Amino acid sequence: MSESKVGDIVVVKTETQQQAFYQLPDGGASTFLCAISLDDYENLLLREQFFAFATEIVLARIRASGSNVQFVQRDTAASPEANPEASLPCWSCPHGEGVRDWLRSGQDGPRSPNGVPLLCCRVGVVGAFGLAGEPARAPRR
Questions:
Q1: Which of 71, 109, 111, 125 is most buried, with most CB under 10 Å away?
Q2: β-sheet bridge partners, residue 8
Q3: Is residue 46 within 8 Å of 40, Cβ to Cβ?
Q4: What is the DSSP string of 93-105?
Q5: 80-111 pLDDT, tens digit each
Q6: What is the rounded CA–CA span in Å between residue 46 and residue 124?
Q7: 104-132: string of b/e by CB count within 10 Å (b at 16+)?
Q8: pLDDT in tens, 109-132
Q9: Which residues of 38-58 are buried (b: 16+ CB within 10 A; e: fewer)?
């Protein structure tokens, strides 16, 4: 089976929505596929369905023209060596979107002794302690 690129799905952000367009590999005119509001795009499930819908539209258009294509998704994830944080449990956790965003931002913040960010759902902070020998103080209001 020979592989040849038939185009790209390009997503463009406007003031109110994300819009998907089909772009031919030669850089020719793009074709509008679908759109989703910015609020709905923030929902991970809806975002995944948006991309799946745009892909299905492209495949249906190509097949309607008489071509028999098969969709092959390339893994675009960077190698773990390129991202030192990829070994953290938050990187592959379905609940870790906030932690991944924080890690991508490059901010350095509090971490557990084993290096996991304190934002991680696997880390539980049970108390804060002062210097040894000092009495505990009530928090100021």
A1: 111
A2: 23
A3: yes
A4: -TT-HHHHHHHHT
A5: 445 666 667 777 777 777 877 777 777 777 77
A6: 30
A7: eeeeeeeeeeeeebebbeebeeeeeeeee
A8: 777 766 777 777 776 655 555 555
A9: eeebeeeeeeeebeeebbebb
Closest CA to 6 of 86, 52, 63: 63
Q: Is 105 left (phi over 0), alpha (psi -120 to 50) or beta?
A: alpha
Question: What are the tokens at 115?
Answer: 């290096």
> Is the whole-model pTM more than 0.85?
no
Which residue type does 114 have? N
Cα radius of gyration (the chain): 23
Q: Please calculate the CA angle 96-98-101 and round it to the nearest 5 degrees.
A: 105
